[in-house]
Amino acid sequence: MTSSEHPGNAAAPTRLLLIDGHAMAFRAFFALPADGFTDGRGQSTNAVYGFARMLFNVVASEQPTHVAVAFDMAGGTFRDRIYDQYKAGREETPQQFIGQIALIQKTLDALGVSWLEVPDYEADDIIASLATRMRSRGQEALIVSSDRDALQLVGPGVTLLQPVKGVTELRRMDPAAVQEKYQVDPEHYPDLAALVGESADNLSGVPGVGPKTAAKWLGKYGSLEGLLEHAEEITGKAGQSLRDHVEDVRRNRVMNAAVTDLELPDDDIVFTLGRGDRAAVNEVFDDLAFGPTIRRDLPAVFLPEGAADEEPGAADVEMPELVRPRGAEIATALSGPFSGGAALAIDGSWELGLGEATRLALATATDLAVLDLTDLDGDAEQALANWLSDRSIPKTAHDTKYAVHELSPRGLQVDGWRTDLGLAEFLCRPDQRPTDLAGLVMRHLQEELETTASGSQQTLDLDGGGSAAADEALARAAHAVHRLEPLLRADLEEHEAQALHDDLELPLAQVLGQMEAVGIQAEDSVLAELDAEHERQQTQVAESAFSHIGGDRINLGSPKQLQEVLYERLEMPKGRRTKTGYSTNAETLTDLFEKTQHPFLADLLAHRDVTKMRQIIETLRRFIAEDSRIHTTFHQNIAATGRLSSNNPNLQNIPMRTEEGRRIRGAFVVSEGYEQLLTADYSQIEMRIMAHLSGDEGLIEAFRSGEDLHNFVASRVFDVEPDQVDGAMRSKTKAVSYGLAYGLSAFGLSRQLRISQAEATALRDGYFERFGGVRDFLRESVEQARKVGYTQTILGRRRYLPDLTSDNRQRRENAERVALNSPIQGSAADIIKLAMLRVDADLRAAGVASRVLLQVHDELVLEVAPGELEQVRDLVVTGMGDAYEISVPLSVGVGVGRTWLEAAH
């Protein structure tokens, strides 16, 4: 390799960055939570994200001219033939890590970074060979690896960057640093390692000999060979131990010797930086569901020379001239250039039921304006109000619901929405993120939109009051919305999702916005009393738990302290091992309690339950606004199935299967001027959709007969008369029914029912034997999705599943589970959304004061005005029951009460 030109620099000397791919991927995996990084299809991506971050950071700080990443190959190496127990002590690869190496390699391909594998050799050997080559040519190599064997390569021109914390903090190990830490020079580090051993590689050293003793011996005798030649001179137990384990030491030294002469590519271009493709990187990051931040931090040096001029934010996007109309100019602009509609961007906020808008930007292909909403005279305000409320004037925004929240406090109502970019993007790419405006700009326009998030990710918080810079930033956002709209409208057409956007999701956004603005009354005093009660319970169960371990007052939330108590002091059977010890998660503790029935575990599980309840209550209290109401935020673009979710606070995580959880609903009350809360929900909607989609005659008969569904199903699965079905039979078949609707495997069913996998498989097979239509439907759903690449609901909502044809078994099986449950769950989501639109329209048409407050799962919560109960009850039951016609009746249950708890049914 010869000196080359660093892209963007003049004749920089060659500096080769060498990365141990597997070692750093594993560190990235354990540095970031696997549950916090997924691609939306069940594949964890935390190792990929951490690895990419590490790569970007190192390249930015060290400024190499060339990069190579080395990986181990499956199947072992020549070292395994020398010693068949090599690395035998390593734990099984975590399930969530599987598949991520291939994704890292795919990312490297997009970045134009070479990665290497050599059969029968380790990544260490590839790195050693390239580093040795660089040193022989008087050039520089930087090695990034957590493997201490790489220390032997450190020397003139070769530096090791050794991870200290995760993958972000690296320690520079040059010869002086190696000498200081290990008391030997790099050349003799393998000698020291041979004496001490390496537990990670299952190489046992000399018992009783640590690094200090080994370094002292090597310092005295010069090398390992010199030491072994004088082994008889070493006195004491250590000397005898050395003599007893000479063969182990010699084996270790053979095993840890780096191979430095592999035949590897010897062409500058193979490892040169600057061969990446931004479009390919964006495509890969889209697939991995990575947000805009990591894209923005991509060093320009990865891209071809001159690409720095094209990086996001640097492109000179031509925009219309920005105007700032005032007074009478506003009416002129709205009736002139913007009379045909516009794209909107708003500088404002909305939180806890309070909204504010200070500036409004309007954009078309030829015009761009920013209106100062804090300085409107009467005529201008009326002109703007008329323009916004005119449904014949089409308007587009990134988040139409949020825009309404910001404008409403000024008395400005909006109608005539044409496109909601966030909803359009979600319908076309339900498993991908981001869906914020900056992310859409990055994804579709390959540009960076400079905004600062505040409160919601949709808000443009632009410092500087009425400054020109703030106006220009808001104008850029509106212009971006205008440019994105035709792209996303075309996407909607391509994905056959126009009707879902125009007729379902877009109008629903406005209904949800009304619900959010109204909120629901919550009594803080009730929640405070519940919290105090739970605090007393928390203390009681903690004291009881302490009494079972000798009175030691440990932290019951500390995994480390629990590991010591459970597995060392109480000597309980050890379960799954994690990087910090044996697991103490809820599933593990439940299994342990079933096996041991130890009272400490009973108290520990009770403590966790009551602690969770207190966290829920605390969150609810924090979100009670000044009007004594909770204004949750509903999301249409989070759950890939199409189901609604909520946050700030999440009202869907209030437990309803326990008395303690149900009591929380007692704090939600009817407000002044209203008489009752009414709840209405669908009965067994997933099972009804399963019957409809599968056409199974047995299930359809069950629903049409009016019998108890799960009793009916159990009688056929267990081949008994309906009156002979006991509670256990009913529970098991109910679990199978819902398990199938949610893509549950036989293993998952066995875990849920606490039965053997063989029994779970037999139970499922018995179900399929009696309800063959369900079996055939599920099988055909997967096969059809494999052919076309997606599943779809009764309204045509698609979920794209490219992993159905993946060579990676885990990814393929994850996709198959999604293909099983998405049509059913997604169709249930479609129906409840249709019902919400129908109920809202019927309430308005009837001219009643009653209103919808909440949607939680398959339940609607309404506030009923005096004298309207019977009319509203009939209207809701009819609206929900007739929302969509399927082959079995949609059954709607209704309850009424002064609180949400009393209204349960």
TrEMBL record:
<keyword id="KW-0234">DNA repair</keyword>
<dbReference type="InterPro" id="IPR012337">
    <property type="entry name" value="RNaseH-like_sf"/>
</dbReference>
<dbReference type="Pfam" id="PF01367">
    <property type="entry name" value="5_3_exonuc"/>
</dbReference>
<dbReference type="InterPro" id="IPR029060">
    <property type="entry name" value="PIN-like_dom_sf"/>
</dbReference>
<keyword id="KW-0227">DNA damage</keyword>
<dbReference type="InterPro" id="IPR008918">
    <property type="entry name" value="HhH2"/>
</dbReference>
<dbReference type="InterPro" id="IPR001098">
    <property type="entry name" value="DNA-dir_DNA_pol_A_palm_dom"/>
</dbReference>
<comment type="similarity">
    <text>Belongs to the DNA polymerase type-A family.</text>
</comment>
<feature type="domain" description="5'-3' exonuclease">
    <location>
        <begin position="14"/>
        <end position="274"/>
    </location>
</feature>
<dbReference type="InterPro" id="IPR036279">
    <property type="entry name" value="5-3_exonuclease_C_sf"/>
</dbReference>
<keyword id="KW-0548">Nucleotidyltransferase</keyword>
<dbReference type="GO" id="GO:0006302">
    <property type="term" value="P:double-strand break repair"/>
</dbReference>
<dbReference type="Pfam" id="PF02739">
    <property type="entry name" value="5_3_exonuc_N"/>
</dbReference>
<comment type="function">
    <text>In addition to polymerase activity, this DNA polymerase exhibits 3'-5' and 5'-3' exonuclease activity.</text>
</comment>
<dbReference type="InterPro" id="IPR020045">
    <property type="entry name" value="DNA_polI_H3TH"/>
</dbReference>
<dbReference type="InterPro" id="IPR002421">
    <property type="entry name" value="5-3_exonuclease"/>
</dbReference>
<dbReference type="GO" id="GO:0003677">
    <property type="term" value="F:DNA binding"/>
</dbReference>
<dbReference type="GO" id="GO:0003887">
    <property type="term" value="F:DNA-directed DNA polymerase activity"/>
</dbReference>
<protein>
    <recommendedName>
        <fullName>DNA polymerase I</fullName>
        <ecNumber>2.7.7.7</ecNumber>
    </recommendedName>
</protein>
<keyword id="KW-0235">DNA replication</keyword>
<dbReference type="Pfam" id="PF00476">
    <property type="entry name" value="DNA_pol_A"/>
</dbReference>
<dbReference type="InterPro" id="IPR002298">
    <property type="entry name" value="DNA_polymerase_A"/>
</dbReference>
<dbReference type="Pfam" id="PF22619">
    <property type="entry name" value="DNA_polI_exo1"/>
</dbReference>
<dbReference type="InterPro" id="IPR020046">
    <property type="entry name" value="5-3_exonucl_a-hlix_arch_N"/>
</dbReference>
<dbReference type="GO" id="GO:0006261">
    <property type="term" value="P:DNA-templated DNA replication"/>
</dbReference>
<dbReference type="InterPro" id="IPR018320">
    <property type="entry name" value="DNA_polymerase_1"/>
</dbReference>
<keyword id="KW-0378">Hydrolase</keyword>
<keyword id="KW-0269">Exonuclease</keyword>
<keyword id="KW-0239">DNA-directed DNA polymerase</keyword>
<keyword id="KW-0540">Nuclease</keyword>
<dbReference type="InterPro" id="IPR054690">
    <property type="entry name" value="DNA_polI_exonuclease"/>
</dbReference>
<keyword id="KW-0238">DNA-binding</keyword>
<dbReference type="GO" id="GO:0008409">
    <property type="term" value="F:5'-3' exonuclease activity"/>
</dbReference>
<comment type="function">
    <text>In addition to polymerase activity, this DNA polymerase exhibits 5'-3' exonuclease activity.</text>
</comment>
<keyword id="KW-0808">Transferase</keyword>
<dbReference type="InterPro" id="IPR043502">
    <property type="entry name" value="DNA/RNA_pol_sf"/>
</dbReference>
<dbReference type="InterPro" id="IPR036397">
    <property type="entry name" value="RNaseH_sf"/>
</dbReference>
<feature type="domain" description="DNA-directed DNA polymerase family A palm">
    <location>
        <begin position="661"/>
        <end position="868"/>
    </location>
</feature>
